[in-house]
Amino acid sequence: MPFHIDPQLERDTCPVADLPLSAVRLMLDANYPWLVLVPRRAGRVEIHDLPRHDRIALIDEIDLAGEALRSLARVDKLNVAALGNQVRQLHVHVVARQAGDRAWPKPVWGAAPARPYPAGEAEALASRIAGRLNVTRIGRIQ
Fold first, then answer.
1. What is the CA radius of gyration of the chain?
2. Which string of DSSP letters, residue by residue, matches 91-131?
3. Structure-derived torsion over alpha carbons of residues 84, 92, 53, 2, reported in degrees to the nearest 10
4. Dist CA 89 CA 63 (whole Å)
5. Contacts of 101 (CB under 8 A, 6+ apart)
6. What burial class does residue 37 get, using C-beta atoms within 10 Å of its C-beta: 0-12 exposed, 13-18 middle, 19+ buried?
7. Which of 56, 61, 103, 118 is most exposed, with minimal Cβ within 10 Å?
8. Parallel, antiparallel, or unpaired: how do β-strands 92-97 and 22-27 relate?
């Protein structure tokens, strides 16, 4: 079965880069610096669905994504979650939180409506993140 990113993730994010395991995407919500890592393994739903070497790689990529966010924004707490309640496809959220942000101290989901990035800002941020990940940015915002 070929790998495809879930249509909901496609709509809610823009491509940043490809790491060895995961497609890295920027959540299109300017309320928070927020990355989504999607392991390029078809049919996986849970982290435990990955073989051990991919689980280890995923943890390393989560760490790399967190460090990239920390290098670009003030981060008081890094939230990492693999919920999958609305999108079954395995994906991991890495959200840079700041004390006093729109949802603080609660989870970001449902706390505030998504705020679109001003024209060009999501692409610029995606490029800066790709640079911090030390990879070439892929794709374009549609």
1. 14
2. -EEEEEE-TTSTTTTS-STTTS---PPPTTHHHHHHHHHHH
3. 60
4. 21
5. 31, 32
6. buried
7. 118
8. unpaired
* Phi, psi at 62, each rounded to 5°: -60, -45
**Per-residue DSSP letters for 35-54?**
EEEEES-TT--SGGGS-HHH
pLDDT in tens, the chain (142 residues): 899 999 999 999 999 999 999 999 999 999 999 999 999 999 999 999 999 999 999 999 999 999 999 999 999 999 999 998 899 999 999 999 999 999 999 999 989 999 999 999 999 999 999 999 986 555 443 3
The residues with which 38 forms a beta bridge, in sequence order, are: 23
Cα 112 to Cα 29, 32, 115, distances in angstroms: 10, 11, 8
Q: Where are the domains of the chain?
A: 7-103+112-133
Q: Which CATH number applies to 7-103+112-133: 3.40.50.1370, 2.30.30.230, 3.30.428.10, 3.30.2130.10?
A: 3.30.428.10
